[in-house]
UniProtKB/TrEMBL annotation:
<feature type="short sequence motif" description="'HIGH' region">
    <location>
        <begin position="117"/>
        <end position="127"/>
    </location>
</feature>
<dbReference type="GO" id="GO:0005524">
    <property type="term" value="F:ATP binding"/>
</dbReference>
<feature type="domain" description="DALR anticodon binding">
    <location>
        <begin position="429"/>
        <end position="544"/>
    </location>
</feature>
<keyword id="KW-0648">Protein biosynthesis</keyword>
<dbReference type="InterPro" id="IPR035684">
    <property type="entry name" value="ArgRS_core"/>
</dbReference>
<dbReference type="InterPro" id="IPR014729">
    <property type="entry name" value="Rossmann-like_a/b/a_fold"/>
</dbReference>
<dbReference type="Pfam" id="PF03485">
    <property type="entry name" value="Arg_tRNA_synt_N"/>
</dbReference>
<dbReference type="GO" id="GO:0005737">
    <property type="term" value="C:cytoplasm"/>
</dbReference>
<dbReference type="GO" id="GO:0004814">
    <property type="term" value="F:arginine-tRNA ligase activity"/>
</dbReference>
<comment type="similarity">
    <text>Belongs to the class-I aminoacyl-tRNA synthetase family.</text>
</comment>
<dbReference type="GO" id="GO:0006420">
    <property type="term" value="P:arginyl-tRNA aminoacylation"/>
</dbReference>
<keyword id="KW-0030">Aminoacyl-tRNA synthetase</keyword>
<comment type="subunit">
    <text>Monomer.</text>
</comment>
<feature type="domain" description="Arginyl tRNA synthetase N-terminal">
    <location>
        <begin position="2"/>
        <end position="81"/>
    </location>
</feature>
<keyword id="KW-0436">Ligase</keyword>
<keyword id="KW-0963">Cytoplasm</keyword>
<dbReference type="Pfam" id="PF05746">
    <property type="entry name" value="DALR_1"/>
</dbReference>
Amino acid sequence: MQSLASLLSARVEAAAGIDPEMRPATKPQFGHFQTNVALRLAKPQGRPPREVAADLVERIDLADLCEPLEIAGPGFINLRIKPEVLARAASDLLADPHTGIDQAAQPQRIVLDYSSPNVAKQMHVGHLRTTIIGDCFNRVLTATGNTVIPQNHIGDWGRQFGMLIEQALDEALDLSALDLAGAEALYKRANARLSSDEGFADRARERVVALQAGDEETLAIWRRLIEVSKVGFNEAYDRLGVLLTDADIAGESLYNPMLEAVCDDLESRGIAKMDDGALVVFVDGFDAPAILRNRHGGYGYDVTDVAAQKYRVEQLHADRIIYVTDARQRHHFELVFAVARKAGYVPEGVSTEHVGYGMVLGADGKPFSTREGTAAYLIDLLDAAEEHVTRPVALAAIKYADLSSQLQKDYVFDPVRMTATTGDTGPYLQYAHARANQILRRAEAEGIAWESITVLTEPAEQNLALLLSRFGEVIVGVASDLQPHKLATYLFDLATAMSVFYEQCPVLKSEGEVRASRLALCATTKKVLATGLNLLGIEAPDQM
Ligand code: ARG
């Protein structure tokens, strides 16, 4: 379904020859949309802008959609959509299974790397953000007609397993009774011993060699540690209500068998060089090289991410690859993206994007992760929010707080503020949805029938319908620029417009066609709120 805005844009562009950069009008008296296209054309033509505007207004073919166009101020063109056109555009959303969201003309296969916690460590506040943001991307990219391939790049390989396995053997630990918290405690005990006990450090190193060589006893413990961790991760995912499942796990160990070949390939083609005993790739514009293999012959995070990109292009047939991590990993990703391009592993037509997010701060403005004794685990944050409200509301609060400001910014985890039912919060949007539902149920109980939006005389009705008609383009925008706060802002504006509408336009107390049309407007608003919240990963309960 083509959005009204893009339809108007196309028609104006046909007359003007350039993109009109249509914007929503800033005040109701300016109509619904405004363009400064005449001002931009006037300059090179050396003509007065109002004259250019008058010319354009003559030629723009919009009589079927708009009231007569108006010229304002220095030469702006104001567009006011006919109420019946607006009514139809909003009504169409109700019947459309995609709620007005355009389906990609060329659907892409999108690899989405998110969550990605580490084995034998509980999920941290940072993992809360990547999990929530990635879940939202997953939903939005799917809703726009693409195929999303989530990849949970868990840290299930590396040198830390040497000490973990050695410590478990030393302690004759009962692995069948281990859980994730227990695995993390084991990690801490092993780590503490590493610096004080040289013999242990040596044995840990040998254990890494045994793991790499495929020693069965070693592998069995390694597998068990992963199993236990997965159980813990899944508990967190269940609690968060996100889409990730075990089928999405593609951890670092998956790429381990590919690393040697990647190194050989890059070395033989002269892309990688030996430097001080390590195999590295220098990339223009970067201070330090990417390390493929260190001086001891070990493989690390960089080369794994190079191999992963190759795999995602060749095996998963990705058209677009998106990574969601802490903003502090930006440099790592820029470097490994550049290496994979240089190697030709990621062809020109495939994009690689890193979405970095800011830190979660406590109410005192300090990062959670560095504070002693306070919640730094994801589970503790969920508990903190649930002290104030029920679980669905707590989740709405957390997810909305996370997604409603620009991702790059740090955000303050303030359970009191974010669970409030007024203001720009998740629970406020849930209430707006429940309120629309309540009116519809009451109408149903009173046997009042309604079908579609037919009357839009009041400015509050028009404003609401106009916002509704924009829903599809907002979602398509988020799918492309990966900025979910634009959806959050849109939903907040919609809920606000809905409450102005209730104030100014009685629904159940009006009569006849006006009442039926207003009920349809409520139903459309309810549907768009529910769909939008769902795309943020937030439930929209019918009652609260
Ligand atoms: N395991 C890493 C961490 O916890 C995140 C991995 C992100 N994905 C990737 N392909 N490197 O920080």
